[in-house]
Design brief:
The structure is a homodimer of 192-residue chains. Chain A is mostly helical and 192 residues long. Helices cover 72% and strands 0% of the residues of chain A.
């Protein structure tokens, strides 16, 4: 039992250490020896948990997906309208990315061309935005001349840009930047 | 003389072939043997022009910078106000990126963490946007409650997002997407 707990802790440490390596060096250049050393274990111990670098990356991505989906889920409150769900989710995801290197590295890995069969977390965000904008339209929250598709495209592009730019400027995902963004967008919907 | 012209043509072919390889595989995974083969020359001929992969990438980036700056320059017309300069430049850059693989690859290479001493074309775009938004303010083209800094940040984030998303969807830099974007932004300035 103690041994099993230690295995779980080692695995968690390896996922975190891998996330740090992927964030700093990118998937292609990250080294398994470096990942295991920073987790305080041998390369052999790493291979007990993961077959190869692709398997490590896949675990980082899966962990990131779980955490980002949980953050999005926790942001939903009863009685919110679609616009409130959208803005609250954006703050929750930005906060999760700001605080957690595994979430950041997993999102960066997602859709990385050098990897195969990855999840597509950006596609998931795009689908969510499109759904909520459509719901906002059903709930008569959008002013009439706004095209749903245009609004969803712009939200996805701008938030993708925020995330990309935050890789070199940690303020790129600050709540105030998001607030300014929603202040620009929200005149397009009746103020809530 | 003929020999010199041939050398120039070979160099151009290598830069284009390198841009295709960098776009498809990324800087780290692109192979010099592949780049020379696609340009129809030997690896030895490539090394006559470029010392190593870093030198090839640097030439692609420099060529992209020249072409993007020229496209931006050509978009300026006498009598344009600051807002018109901003939108016209955005269309010209999107068109240049859509049509030219060297421009796309150079922009993607710019600021790539695995390279040292690269130009920073994104920083150049950000500086341009900040300057033109400040000019728009001086020319009294902005409505009063818009913060210059917020507007510049949003424009940079959204256009960065468009460029990133266009890597998997070629429509990501279409004029209609940009038009929709400016339609969202421009109510913030008196219609021109």
């Amino acid at each position: 039992m103690v041994q099993q707990q230690r295995a779980v802790r080692t695995r968690q440490a390896l996922i975190r250490s891998a996330a740090e390596a992927f964030e700093r060096h990118g998937y292609v250049l990250a080294k398994l020896a470096d990942i295991s050393a920073r987790a305080g274990v041998s390369v052999g111990a790493l291979h007990f948990h993961f077959e190869n670098k692709a398997a490590v990356a896949s675990s980082v991505e899966t962990a990131a997906a779980l955490r980002l989906r949980r953050a999005a889920w926790n942001a939903q409150r009863p009685g919110m309208n679609a616009v409130q769900r959208l803005t609250a989710t954006s703050y929750a995801l930005a906060d999760q990315l700001r605080r957690d290197v595994v979430s950041r590295a997993g999102l960066k890995l997602s859709g990385e061309p050098a990897r195969e069969g990855s999840l597509d977390l950006r596609q998931e965000w795009q689908a969510f935005v499109e759904k909520v904008v459509a719901e906002a339209s059903d709930e008569n929250l959008l002013v009439e001349r706004v095209e749903q598709r245009d609004m969803a495209d712009l939200i996805v592009a701008a938030t993708t840009g925020f995330e990309l730019l935050s890789r070199r400027d940690p303020d790129g995902l600050s709540p105030s930047l998001l607030t300014n963004f929603w202040r620009f967008m929200l005149p397009r919907v009746p103020q809530t």
